[in-house]
Specification:
alpha+beta, 548 residues
């Protein structure tokens, strides 16, 4: 190819990448506009807004379980004086956009691959529309992939992005460690000598110093997020033990990323009980996915890179993970395929040749390979359509509408009691906490520490009794805020106050999509008949669907 032809091709690839980026950006903006943030988006904002810098960096990470970078960035953004939604969506959009730019304008993939990657449910919806650190994590991982090939020649930038990856998420620490160990192990395997590999590493003093600095940074970050004895997450009950959870991470999650939809994001991987048929089906699909990765990595002598990075991530995910964390496997796949492509472009013939060796004709071999890709893309596009349709047609969370009702009726000046769990006075339902993000103070008199965010500190019996006594000192509340009306009985029994709280002063329902599934979330403001009449000037009538 002449230089002129190369220039034309590069210009053509650039235009193609820009067009895909523009299209994906428009879709993402539409999603962000219609999306109502929920608790997991409000909590970091409330922490960033109300906690001190010291607390954000050194105290709260022990209870949140993640490095403080996301909170720090939101805290910086909140200084601009923007609204809650503009603040979190603005930070989210920056990282989503950089993630897409990396995929479309920096990755070594073919045009077809670049066009198909954004169709992933995790790329175009979950890590786009929801303002959480996962787009930042993906961006950091893609930077690592981009700099991996030149890690020995330019080690400083490579180490810096690995540190960035560690700062994004607890999974990022594991993934970064897996990448480094895979690099060293892979070098030993390829050179067939530990001595030669160690000698080569010792000879590159900048890379060696970088790995030592990375280890020190990772240890410091892990010390910063290590859970305290009273961290709520360390006391949760789980249906599956660690080993079963690890197997699910290895042989269930891959299928859930690309083809199947057996999980609901309302339950963690450790808690959701899938049928035997679902587990077997997902396992079979996962084996095919692992087979594809193996074919690519074996040819390029990258088996260590294939095994270690995701294994390290899975070791952490097996402790605590929800289905939305499954995108970590997608990041791993993109990383491995990116670094493999830097060695040698990936072609369909690599897979069809395997099938032809076992007697499949070339025509059917190509049909099988293309069919697998088409099935995966079709499923992800279907999930995207379901999720965006639900976002546009229904509220994702009740908080924005409830906040408007509160402001119109001046409810924020009333005594609001938030329902707590019957097992822990520091555990509250999501939607009421999310409401705090729309006000400049904590709305509820019985939240732990009178802060607007959830501390995630488990209350012992002495603390729980102190919480009850403190709540009793306020007397009967004006409104009890809860996810279902009967939960008001928990508070009356636990605290004890007069009044028959049966009137639904406000009720709202939200629909939370995950792929093709939807979880309903309810929010109620319950009061007495007398309070209801004062508010609306009429007697409360029990809804017809509750009569009889």
């Amino acid at each position: 190819m002449t230089m002129n032809n190369k220039s034309v091709k590069n210009r053509s690839d650039l235009i193609f990448g820009l067009l895909i980026t523009a299209a994906v950006t428009v879709i993402g903006i539409i999603g962000l506009i219609f999306h109502e943030p929920w608790y997991e988006e409000a909590q970091p904002y409330l922490v960033a807004r109300d906690a001190s810098w010291y607390e954000v960096i050194f105290t709260i990470p022990h209870y949140e379980g993640h490095p403080p970078l996301w909170h720090m960035l939101i805290k910086l953004a909140s200084c601009l004086g923007l609204s809650y939604e503009l603040t979190i969506k603005g930070v989210q959009f920056i990282f989503f956009e950089t993630m897409i730019i990396m995929l479309e304008l920096r990755s070594p993939f073919s045009r077809v691959t670049k066009a198909l990657l954004p169709t992933s449910f995790f790329v175009i919806y979950h890590y786009c529309v929801l303002s959480r650190p996962y787009a930042m994590l993906m961006f950091a991982g893609l930077l690592c992939a981009a700099f991996y090939d030149k890690r020995r020649e330019k080690p400083i930038r490579y180490i810096l992005v690995l540190v960035f990856l560690c700062l994004c998420h607890s999974y990022g620490i594991a993934f970064a460690g897996g990448i480094v160990l895979a690099d060293i192990t892979g070098d030993i395997i390829r050179k067939r000598s530990i001595g030669k590999a160690v000698s080569g590493l010792l000879g590159n003093k900048k890379l060696l110093a970088g790995y030592i600095a990375l280890l020190a940074a990772a240890i410091a970050i892990m010390a910063d997020i290590a859970p305290k004895q009273d961290t709520m997450a360390t006391h949760l009950d789980r249906h599956y033990g660690y080993f079963v959870s690890l197997l699910l991470c290895l042989f269930f999650i891959p299928s859930e990323v690309f083809v199947t939809s057996f999980s609901s994001d309302a339950s963690s991987i450790q808690d959701e009980v899938n049928s035997i048929g679902e587990i077997i089906g997902a396992g079979a699909v996962s084996l095919i996915i692992w087979g594809i990765i193996f074919i690519v990595c074996k040819k390029r002598k990258m088996l260590a890179e294939m095994i270690i990075p995701y294994l390290f991530s899975a070791l952490v995910m097996s402790i605590y993970a929800y289905p939305h964390h499954s995108g970590m496997f997608l990041l791993y796949v993109i990383f491995v395929m990116w670094t493999a492509t830097d060695k040698e472009p990936i072609r369909l013939s690599e897979f069809t040749d395997i099938l032809k060796k076992i007697g499949v004709s070339e025509r059917y071999a190509l049909t099988y390979v293309v069919g697998i890709i088409t099935l995966s893309v079709a499923m992800n596009v279907y999930w995207d359509i379901c999720s965006y349709a639900r976002e546009i047609s229904s509220p994702y969370d009740n908080a924005p509408a409830a906040a408007e009702w509160i402001k119109q009726n001046h409810i924020d000046g009333k005594k609001l009691l938030i329902v707590w769990s019957d097992t822990d006075t520091n555990i509250y339902p999501d939607a009421p906490v999310t409401l705090n993000a729309y006000f400049d103070k904590n709305l509820y008199y019985n939240m732990e520490g009178d802060v607007a965010y959830v501390t995630h500190i488990k209350a012992d019996e002495a603390e729980a009794e102190a919480d009850r006594e403190y709540a009793r000192s306020f007397g009967a509340p004006d409104f009890i805020v809860c996810p279902y009306p009967l939960s008001t009985n928990v508070m009356k029994d636990d605290i004890g106050f007069e009044g028959e709280y049966i009137a639904e002063a406000y009720s709202g329902v939200a629909y939370r999509p995950f792929k093709d599934k939807t979880d309903e979330k309810h929010l109620y403001f319950i009061c007495t008949r007398e309070t209801y009449k004062e508010l609306y000037g009429k007697d409360y009538e029990i809804p017809s669907y509750k009569k009889g």
